[in-house]
Prior knowledge:
Layout: H1 21-39, H2 79-90, H3 102-106, E1 112-114, E2 120-124, H4 127-133, H5 161-174, E3 179-181, E4 188-191, E5 195-199
Antiparallel strand pairs: 1-2, 2-5, 3-4, 4-5
Helix pairs in contact: 2-5
Amino acid sequence: MTDQEMNYTPYPGVDAEDMTEHNLTQAVKDLEQGTQASQTVTEPEPVTVTEQKPEVTEPIKASQIEQEPEPEQIERFDVDTESKLMKAFLKVFSESESVISEELLLKIDTPGIVEPAHVCMCVAKTTRAKLILRRFYSGQSKVPSDVSMNLKNPGNSMYSLDYFQNILKILDVVTDHFRIIEGTDTPCIIESEDFKFLLAPRIEEN
């Protein structure tokens, strides 16, 4: 095959008529450069990572924490004293069939208890005394206006020695100081810081 019979593919941008040896050499170089350029891997640009510091929070102070109010401390006798008082009261008073709650009892100003024969009455003057009377309380909330304690035609002011001694035993558990108030045809009042006892006079028939 002669040169005249060969078919040439023109280089892009070059006419077949201008396809000289010089042009062919230049075209080969351009192709080689283009191939190298296509094989060159472009390195990615470095990524700058910004380190995020953890958020620092200030510690919460104890004063900033909302605290529930502490329950109010209820004044009580110590366990040993309470036990001795219960034994002494049981010699005079009877336990109630239904015991009132502490919450309700403490709302009563002067809760009082009366022994079965209605001869002796005890009134609590302090919170700790109220809690002692709780086991014996049956609804009498204050000293009755009738200080004769429902006695008819009381006689001379004489009092039961047994009741008097038992009252003193109760008071002896908690104190050495108390006062005694007596009058004519009226109950005897035996009173300490915590308790007030009313002892009805004995009836002497003529």
